[in-house]
C-alpha cells in the first residue's frame, strides 16, 4: 500500500521554482530519505507533506486520502523539527503529552502512551526535567518521543541530527534505524549528509536545485548513479570524459601498477593518505587536467611514494556511463 | 563565584547610594516626631503610623489600591492585543507600530494630561459633540471624577505594558507554533498553551511597571481628579511639601512600599509556573 503519494507537486516562490514537478510514492513502513545540498528544496517538500507549505500545483495523498488542502493539525503525521522546537515551559512529560491532550485522549491512555514513548527513547529517568536541563542528544530524543507518542502514520524528520556532534550522530543514527524497524512507521527523512542517507534509508531521493536527480536504493545509487550530480554527491568518484560521453569509476575499483607496465592511464602520485582500513592515492594524470583518487585496502603494503610515476588500471565492467 | 560577586559590586554600590540609603532615611524619619515648625525631631515615636489608622486615610489607602490594580488590569487588557498585533506584523510595520506607541512620550507629560482636561471638561470636546448629536441634553460631569483619573492613568501607562509584552512575544520562537500545530493544536489552543505562557515574563514586567508607576503618580490625580479624588501619593506629597509633616509622610511611604512589595510577591507567586521555579533552582 502507498502511504504517501505526491502527484506532480510543484512549489513556486516569488516567480522562482523551488521544487520542480515531483511525483513520488512512498510505501508503508519505508524509510525514505530526501538527500541534497542546502537549498535543493528537500525541506520545502517535507513541509508540504506536513502541511506548513501549500504546493503551487499538484496533490498530496496520505494513506490514499487527499490532504493537499488540510492544515498541519488535521494531518495524521508528525514532524521532528530541525531544532526540536520543544516547549520550553513544559517538562519532558508535558511536551510528550501535548499531542495526546490535543487529541483529547483519556489521562490513563496518555500515561500509557508516554510511558511507551519514553521507554523507547530511553528518557524514562528524565520525564520531570525541562528542556533547558537536557543535553542536545536528550532534547533530540524528546522531540522524537513527542512525535511517536501520537502513533502517526508517517514520521517526518527534518535534519534531526544536524545540530549534534559526530559521535552522538553515529549513536543516534543506529537508534533511529532500530526505532523505525520496531515501530514499522513510514519515515521520511531529510538530510544533506550522504553517509547518513546511505546508512539509514530503504530508498534515497537525490535532489539538486529543486529537481530529482535519482531515486533508488542506496546500493543502486552507489553502484549505478544516473547523473553526474548523483555520481559525485554520494561517495567519492572519478569522472572520465571520452568523445562518447562521461563515465565514472569508483576509487576502490582503480588499481595502481608500477613501472611502465600496460595501463589505461599514467600519472604521478601527488599525495598518499593513510586512513587505517584504507589508504588513498591522489594521482595527477598525464596530458589530462584531472587527478584521480585510488582507494587501496589495508592488505596493500607496497610503499607508495609521492612523486612516483605509476599506471592506473580498471576493469571495463566497473565503468558507469552517465548522462551529462 | 567570588569573581561574579565582585562584578556585581558597581551595581550594588549604585543601588545602595540611590535606593537603599534614601529608603533607610525614609524609614528612620517615619519613626520620629516633628516640632511645631515642621522640623524633624529625632526621638522615637509611632505618631506617623497611628495617624494612618484614621478612617479618612484608610479610605484613601483602599481607593489607591483599587485604582492601581484597576489601571494595571485595564492596561493589560488593552495592551496585550496591541502588542500581539505589532509583534506579528511584518518587520517594517512593527517599527512603525513601536514608534506610534512611543510618540506620546515625545510630548511633555503635563501637556498630554492637560489635553485630557480640554477633552473632558463640561464645555469640552466630548460633551460638545455629544450635545450636538443630541444624545445628551446637559453636559456630563466627566472631569474631576475617579473615572477621569483612571482614564488618565491608563492612557499614560499603556506603553509601559505594551513594550515588555511586545518584547516577550517578539522573542518567542515562532517554530513552537508550528510544532503545536503539527501536534494537533488549533490556533486558539496554540495561543492558550504556547504563546500565552511564553509571554508571561512580559506580562509580569508590564504589570509591575504600571502598578508601581500608578501608585506613585500624583500629578494625574491632581489635574484630572481635582480636589475630590485623592491618592496616597497626593497625601504623601502634601505631607512633605505642604503640611511639613515628614514623619507622617514617611510612615505613609513605608506602609505603601510594604503593601506594594506584598502585592507584587503574591502576583509573582501566582504567575510563576513550575518551570520558572525549576529554572531558578538551577541558577
From TrEMBL, chain B:
<keyword id="KW-1003">Cell membrane</keyword>
<feature type="transmembrane region" description="Helical">
    <location>
        <begin position="148"/>
        <end position="169"/>
    </location>
</feature>
<feature type="transmembrane region" description="Helical">
    <location>
        <begin position="12"/>
        <end position="32"/>
    </location>
</feature>
<dbReference type="GO" id="GO:0005886">
    <property type="term" value="C:plasma membrane"/>
</dbReference>
<comment type="similarity">
    <text>Belongs to the binding-protein-dependent transport system permease family. CysTW subfamily.</text>
</comment>
<dbReference type="InterPro" id="IPR000515">
    <property type="entry name" value="MetI-like"/>
</dbReference>
<feature type="transmembrane region" description="Helical">
    <location>
        <begin position="246"/>
        <end position="267"/>
    </location>
</feature>
<dbReference type="Pfam" id="PF00528">
    <property type="entry name" value="BPD_transp_1"/>
</dbReference>
<feature type="transmembrane region" description="Helical">
    <location>
        <begin position="96"/>
        <end position="117"/>
    </location>
</feature>
<feature type="domain" description="ABC transmembrane type-1">
    <location>
        <begin position="61"/>
        <end position="267"/>
    </location>
</feature>
<keyword id="KW-0472">Membrane</keyword>
<dbReference type="InterPro" id="IPR035906">
    <property type="entry name" value="MetI-like_sf"/>
</dbReference>
<keyword id="KW-1133">Transmembrane helix</keyword>
<protein>
    <submittedName>
        <fullName>Spermidine Putrescine ABC transporter permease component PotB</fullName>
    </submittedName>
</protein>
<keyword id="KW-0813">Transport</keyword>
<dbReference type="GO" id="GO:0055085">
    <property type="term" value="P:transmembrane transport"/>
</dbReference>
<feature type="transmembrane region" description="Helical">
    <location>
        <begin position="60"/>
        <end position="84"/>
    </location>
</feature>
<keyword id="KW-0812">Transmembrane</keyword>
<feature type="transmembrane region" description="Helical">
    <location>
        <begin position="202"/>
        <end position="226"/>
    </location>
</feature>
Amino acid at each position: 500500500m502507498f502511504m504517501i503519494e505526491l502527484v506532480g507537486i510543484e512549489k513556486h516562490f516569488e516567480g522562482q521554482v523551488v521544487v520542480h514537478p515531483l511525483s513520488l510514492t512512498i510505501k508503508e513502513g519505508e524509510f525514505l530519505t530526501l538527500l541534497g545540498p542546502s537549498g535543493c528544496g528537500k525541506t520545502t517538500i517535507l513541509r508540504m507533506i506536513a502541511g506548513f507549505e501549500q504546493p503551487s500545483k499538484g496533490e498530496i495523498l496520505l494513506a490514499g486520502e487527499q490532504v493537499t488542502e488540510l492544515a498541519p493539525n488535521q494531518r495524521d503525521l508528525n514532524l521532528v523539527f530541525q531544532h526540536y522546537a520543544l516547549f520550553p515551559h513544559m517538562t519532558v512529560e508535558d511536551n510528550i503529552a501535548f499531542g495526546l491532550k490535543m487529541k483529547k485522549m483519556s489521562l490513563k491512555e496518555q500515561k500509557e502512551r508516554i510511558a511507551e514513548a519514553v521507554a523507547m527513547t530511553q528518557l524514562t529517568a528524565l520525564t520531570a526535567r525541562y528542556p533547558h536541563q537536557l543535553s542536545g542528544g536528550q532534547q533530540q530524543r524528546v522531540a522524537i518521543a513527542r512525535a511517536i507518542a501520537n502513533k502517526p502514520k508517517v514520521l517526518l524528520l527534518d535534519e534531526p541530527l544536524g545540530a549534534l556532534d559526530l559521535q552522538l550522530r553515529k549513536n543516534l543514527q543506529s537508534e533511529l534505524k532500530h526505532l523505525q524497524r520496531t515501530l514499522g512507521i513510514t519515515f521520511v527523512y531529510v538530510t544533506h549528509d550522504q553517509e547518513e542517507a546511505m546508512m539509514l534509508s530503504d530508498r534515497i531521493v537525490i535532489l539538486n536545485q529543486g529537481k530529482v536527480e535519482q531515486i533508488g536504493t542506496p546500493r543502486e545509487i552507489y553502484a549505478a548513479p544516473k547523473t553526474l550530480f548523483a555520481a559525485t554527491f554520494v561517495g567519492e568518484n572519478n569522472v572520465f570524459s571520452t568523445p562518447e560521453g562521461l563515465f565514472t569509476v569508483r576509487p576502490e575499483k582503480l588499481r595502481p601498477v608500477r613501472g611502465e607496465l600496460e595501463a589505461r592511464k599514467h600519472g604521478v602520485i601527488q599525495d598518499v593518505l593513510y586512513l587505517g582500513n584504507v589508504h588513498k592515492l591522489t594521482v595527477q594524470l598525464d596530458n589530462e587536467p584531472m587527478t584521480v583518487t585510488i582507494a587501496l585496502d589495508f592488505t596493500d603494503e607496497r610503499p607508495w611514494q609521492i612523486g612516483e610515476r605509476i599506471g592506473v588500471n580498471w576493469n571495463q565492467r566497473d565503468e558507469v556511463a552517465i548522462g551529462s | 563565584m567570588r569573581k561574579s560577586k565582585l562584578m556585581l559590586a558597581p551595581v550594588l554600590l549604585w543601588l545602595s547610594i540611590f535606593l537603599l540609603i534614601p529608603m533607610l532615611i525614609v524609614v528612620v524619619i517615619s519613626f520620629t516626631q516633628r516640632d511645631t515648625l515642621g522640623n524633624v525631631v529625632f526621638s522615637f515615636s509611632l505618631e506617623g503610623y497611628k495617624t494612618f489608622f484614621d478612617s479618612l486615610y484608610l479610605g484613601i489607602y483602599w481607593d489607591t489600591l483599587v485604582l492601581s490594580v484597576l489601571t494595571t488590569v485595564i492596561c493589560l487588557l488593552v495592551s496585550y492585543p496591541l502588542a500581539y498585533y505589532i509583534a506579528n506584523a511584518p518587520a517594517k510595520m512593527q517599527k512603525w507600530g513601536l514608534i506610534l506607541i512611543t510618540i506620546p512620550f515625545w510630548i511633555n507629560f503635563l501637556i498630554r494630561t492637560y489635553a485630557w482636561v480640554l477633552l473632558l471638561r463640561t464645555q469640552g470636546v466630548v460633551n460638545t459633540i455629544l450635545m450636538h448629536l443630541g444624545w445628551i441634553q446637559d453636559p456630563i460631569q466627566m472631569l474631576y471624577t475617579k473615572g477621569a483619573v483612571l482614564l488618565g492613568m491608563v492612557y499614560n501607562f499603556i506603553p509601559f505594558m505594551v513594550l515588555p509584552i511586545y518584547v516577550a512575544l517578539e522573542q518567542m520562537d515562532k517554530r513552537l507554533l508550528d510544532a503545536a500545530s503539527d501536534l494537533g493544536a488549533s490556533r486558539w489552543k496554540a495561543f492558550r498553551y504556547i504563546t500565552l505562557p511564553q509571554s508571561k515574563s512580559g506580562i509580569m514586567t508590564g504589570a509591575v511597571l504600571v502598578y508601581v508607576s500608578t501608585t506613585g503618580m500624583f500629578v494625574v490625580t491632581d489635574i484630572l481628579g481635582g480636589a475630590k479624588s485623592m491618592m496616597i501619593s497626593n497625601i504623601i506629597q502634601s505631607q512633605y511639601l505642604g503640611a511639613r509633616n515628614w514623619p507622617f509622610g514617611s510612615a505613609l511611604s513605608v506602609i505603601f512600599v510594604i503593601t506594594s512589595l506584598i502585592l507584587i510577591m503574591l502576583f509573582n507567586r501566582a504567575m510563576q509556573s513550575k518551570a520558572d521555579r525549576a529554572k531558578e533552582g538551577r541558577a
